[in-house]
Amino acid sequence: MNRTFPTFKTSLLAALAVCAVAAGVLLTPDSHEVDARDTDGWFNYVDYYVGADNTIARIRGDLVAELDGAMNRIDAAIAGLDDDEIVAALIDAADRGVRVRVVGDASQENDDGFADLVDHPDIDVVFGNGELAYLPDPTLSPLLEVCATHDSGDYITCTRSSTVTGPANTPNIMARPDNYNVMSHTFFLIDATYLWNITAPLTGDQGLWLAFRAMSEEMTRSFEREFRQMHGGVFATTLSVYNGPLKSITHTEPARFTNRGMLRVRFNPQERLVKNVIDEIYRARSSVFLMTENLQNRDMINALRYKHEAGFEVRVLVGQSQGATGQELLDEIDGLNVVQAPASLGRLPTFVVLDSERDRNNNQPPRTVQILSHELWRSEPFEVLANLPDDLVRIYPSDTFADGVLWELVENWTVPTPALAEFVQTWEAMWNQAN
Q: Could you tell me which of 399, 395, 402 has the C-alpha nearest to residue 137?
């Protein structure tokens, strides 16, 4: 058998080429240097949609144009769907022979757009993250006799106390309604190379869409692995025998060099995205700007308090859906700069900007932008409040039972990230509108 082994010279040239790409320079065959930031020659080519010139209409128009050009396949995960133009583009693609597969959230199954797709004979639609009934710990069973939803809708209380009124829980199991379990993705895989990721359901609820379009086989494969699990029926609510999430995806190197800087992508529940945001808040060197529709995570609020008390500039923007228990948590932070956005801004995306300000030594640290597809819920899906003999179990919306994605723009001094400034400006514009 003949085998050709690379010589030392060819191996060295290959290594130099990889280093050149990482540094933003491509080497042509005749050794001419080309600035890769000005070419399409990147392994990961990205366009960002943010700022005044990148409205929802433009995102929709460019996405529909790409869907219209699909030749082989469209795989889409869609959190909510009431957008006639995108629905029509998916149906047209199926009519001309493109394979169209869609995954959605069970609580949004009645959206008009999903109904149109389900009715199409050549579009394969799978819904997940519906109601979940399970028993995480057998010792909790006696407490799960009477269950009632809190007036705010923030949690469900179960107890064996006869003084609490509510529907009888005959099976004595923990029942999570479908609106507590969320498939928050909105992404499209088009043919083998093109990826669209939009941080908003395709409805009129959210006034700001943040998105990126990538031409990258590598990045497309990551999202494809996520899609295939959900299309196969494995969502965040699919549990192992030990009541842990069964979903898995391995990202040994989630940070990718692109033509517009470094982009990092992570998936929930496998990589616990809310915890990652908390870790980055503690890591911040100068400032923390955070917006989300509903902030319910006590550990995150503790992190914000820690930075505020250490003299960091902390701004928090929450939406109209901020629940009563979430407000109680925010009220615990004296002096923190918390603002509730007006209804005119619609539902807020989860959008974090770290280190946009100069630090106490008047240096500008590298900035980070984090964009998460779902709200900042609690990490624990339930807690037990021991108060014998009337112990209570509280069941919460949780990122444990949320399929989602976190994408981050990470600034460093080797590869410039020019789009990062546009994200910072967009965050500040939203903040100014709310004040």
A: 395
Same domain, 168 and 187: no
113 and 212 share one domain? yes
d(CA 107, CA 182): 8
- According to DSSP, residue 227 is labeled H
Handedness of CA 384, 303, 176, 228 (dihedral sign): negative
284 and 315 assigned to the same domain: yes
| Structural domains in the chain (count) | 3
DSSP labels, 325-351? HHHHHHHTSTT-EEEEPPGGGBBPPEE
At 215, the amino acid letter reads: M
Asked whether residue 15 is assigned to any structural domain, the reply reads no
Give the pLDDT of residue 334: 64
What is the span of the domain harbouring residue 213? 45-132+180-231
Of 231, 263, 293, the residue at which a domain comes to its end is: 231
What six digits make up the tokens of 293?
């529709």
**Residue 380 half-sphere exposure, CB side, CA atoms within 13 Å?**
9
Q: Are residues 297 and 284 in the same domain?
A: yes
Confirm if 268 and 276 have CB atoms less than 8 A apart.
no
Distance CA 10, CA 334 (A): 62
Q: What is the CATH number of the domain that holds 114?
A: 3.30.870.10
Q: Which long-range contacts (CB under 8 A, 24 or more apart) does 47-51 make?
A: 47/212, 47/213, 47/214, 47/260, 48/211, 48/212, 48/260, 48/419, 48/422, 48/423, 49/209, 49/210, 49/211, 49/212, 49/213, 50/210, 50/211, 50/419, 50/422, 50/423, 50/426, 51/422, 51/425, 51/426
285: how many CB neighbours lie within 10 A of its CB? 17
What local confidence, expressed as pLDDT, does residue 260 receive?
Answer: 87
pLDDT given at position 315: 95
Domain presence at residue 243: no
Q: What is the Cα–Cα distance from 151 to 366, expressed in whole angstroms? A: 43
Closest among 102, 142, 106 to 118, alpha carbons compared: 102
Same domain, yes or no: 107 and 202: yes
Helix axes 56-68, 84-95, angle to 10 degrees: 10
Residue 119 lies inside a defined structural domain of this protein: yes
Residues 354 and 421 in one domain: yes
Domain co-membership, 50 together with 86: yes
Note the pLDDT of residue 42: 63
Residue 380 · residue 400 · CB < 8 Å = yes
Q: Which residues of the chain have pLDDT under 50?
A: 1-39
Q: Biggest alpha carbon distance in the chain?
A: 83
Tell me, yes or no, whether 218 lies in a domain. yes
Integer Cα distance of 27 and 209 in angstroms = 37
Between β-strands 313-318 and 287-292, what pairing exists: parallel, antiparallel or unpaired? parallel
